Amino acid sequence: MKDHIVTSFGEELKDLAARVVEMGGLAETLVKDSVSGLLRADSELARRTIAADKRLDEMQNQLEEQCISVIARRQPMASDLREVIAAMRISNDLERIGDMAKNISKRTLAIEGSFSCKQLALGVEHMSDLALEQLKAVLDAYTSGDLEVVSLVHNRDNEIDALYNSIFRQLLTYMMEDPRNITMCAHLLFCAKNIERIGDHATNIAENIYYMVSGNHLPMDRPKVEEIEISE
Prior knowledge:
With about 230 residues, this protein is mainly alpha-helical. It has one domain (about 1-215): Methane Monooxygenase Hydroxylase, Chain G, domain 1 (Up-down Bundle), CATH 1.20.58.220. The chain is about 85% helix and about 0% strand. The radius of gyration is 19 Å and the shape is elongated.
């Protein structure tokens, strides 16, 4: 009977992990589609991305309820408890990544009709490629438990921050040179900020995976780029 209970609990933990991986796949898709919609001025893709974010919200709510149920029924300890808590925390970061993608798509709809110079979006595209690379790497590490990859993702967050600062200054220059660019550039600035936040959430996921696997926290004394803050 005891072996049956242990086996059943193991299956529940596997199911939680599978749900996190599924959420991660959807979050990646939403980010890709949101940036693609922005670069192509594709309003239909932007609307589909906004609608698809609701599914990610639902998945996060279901996973959180499942985690609470597992804790209440199984009272896990040590590494088992870390797995459940990590699943809950990572799902929250993935849900927030979906929100960032939705925000980018909303900006795409706002830009519609005035987005004429795609050169302005190249920096945003490069930034999104880097953020997606970070997200994919950390989601793979969640499955493999590769702490070397986790540490690398954690330490590379500064690259996204530095690129964001560069984009901020570039777009600010465009706005100063021609006031007609102000509206479009302002929207692109908020898109860039959302991508920078996606990088932050990938870093959060890395930290949670490291703790889940090792029981220790990643060192927090890494060099940090001073970010230029904007708020909506």
